[in-house]
Design brief:
By secondary structure, the protein is an alpha/beta fold. The chain has ten helices and 15 strands.
Length: about 375
């Protein structure tokens, strides 16, 4: 007889404890697309000043008193531009140096315009000061003590803020400060390195050369070398002529397109000429008329224009030559002109504070 098969009893059933809470696997994030920012981050570094604005009641008389109105405002080309960027809604950052006792005051004034001020106190040098003497025809004579500004440089900029879609704005004084000739090459290399870092980070760069006199002091080639890699160049006509050694505005713009894909020349009462590099050597060129207004103080008009023009491009699409069309270029020019017109109808170079009016009272139609 076969041995009966014995089936062993089953072990106790294994109990699988339920999870304390169900595990949810999140879907993969969509690929990151670098798009124009509604409130773009703009970084500026350079000069910040106390402006003393003097309006004589009549002709200045030597060796005796001349009655005058004397007012104090904060200024400095780079700080002014940062204030206008903040005023227009950008996430604006400014890096500069002031006398130690003035840090809180200047930081608060920049904050009033929407600027995050990264100011380094100088325990020895005072805040830079400019005495601006306004003539009856509204031309200006400026007497300058650079003070703590002499130590400002690209190393002051916090590299943690460099990010895709952000923008770096430089002025001529940001590029060089007042370095002696023996140190100029190092200054050029430092500025070029910052521009290269910003470019690698996916940023765009604008450069306002500063003044024709500044270019004459440092040399056109030096200024252009220091601003190599800029996306936008923003000279006035005199500065453009100093940089290119040509006279006709269209020829000036064309010559500067070799150095930057977007160039805009401000020409005072003759308006603005903006140009964008195009393949095939035929640039897109737009002219925008000036708003002819009664000027109060023309200090800072170029900084206001620069901020308005660049901010309009940053918030309307990508800031590159391939995507800027005629409509965007013209709109940016008009916004720059609007900001400049507001600036010159005010005393001082900063924008109106929140709640203050922004009058643009045109005195006559403009033509270009």
């Amino acid at each position: 007889m076969p041995v009966p098969r014995v089936i062993a009893p089953l072990a106790s059933p294994r109990v699988i404890a339920p999870l304390a809470s169900p595990r949810v696997i999140a879907p993969l994030a969509s690929p990151r697309v670098i798009a124009p920012l509604a409130a773009p981050r703009v970084i500026a570094f350079g000069d910040v000043f106390d402006d003393v604005i003097v309006t004589p009641a009549g002709e200045i008389r030597p060796d005796t008193d001349t009655a005058a109105t004397i007012e104090r405002r904060s200024g400095g080309s780079a700080a002014n531009a940062a204030a206008w960027f903040g005023h227009l809604g950008a996430e604006s950052h400014f890096f500069g140096r002031v006398g130690a006792i003035d840090v809180d005051r200047h930081a608060a004034e920049l904050a009033d315009s929407g600027v995050a001020a990264h100011l380094r106190p100088d325990p020895e040098r005072p805040t830079g000061t400019i005495v601006v003497v306004l003539q009856p025809d509204r031309t200006r004579t400026m007497l300058t003590e650079r003070g703590a500004n002499v130590l400002t440089g690209p190393a002051d900029v916090d590299r943690a803020l460099l990010a895709p879609g952000a923008h770096l704005h430089l002025t001529g004084y940001s590029l060089f400060n007042d370095v002696p000739g023996t140190e100029r090459l190092s200054a050029v290399r430092a500025c070029a390195a910052l521009i290269a870092e910003a470019t690698t980070a996916g940023m765009t760069i604008s450069v306002n050369p500063g003044s024709a006199g500044f270019i004459a002091d440092h040399g056109a080639d030096t200024v252009l070398d220091a601003s190599r890699g800029a996306t936008v160049l923003l000279p006035n006509l005199d500065e453009g002529r100093a940089l290119t050694a040509v006279v006709d505005p269209a020829e000036v713009a064309t010559a500067l397109l070799v150095h930057a894909p977007v160039v805009v020349l401000t020409m005072g009462r003759d308006g603005v000429l903006a140009a964008v590099r195009r393949a095939g050597g035929h640039p897109l060129v737009v002219r925008v008329p000036a708003l002819l207004v009664d000027p109060v103080d023309t200090t800072g008009a170029g900084d206001a224009f620069s901020a308005g023009f660049v901010h309009a491009l940053l918030t309307s699409g990508r800031l590159d030559a391939e995507t800027i069309d005629e409509a965007r270029l013209e709109a940016a020019g008009r916004e720059g002109v609007r900001c400049a017109a507001i600036a010159i109808q005010r005393l001082g170079a900063r924008p109106p504070l929140a709640g203050q009016p922004e009058p643009v009272t045109q005195t006559e139609p403009a033509t270009v």
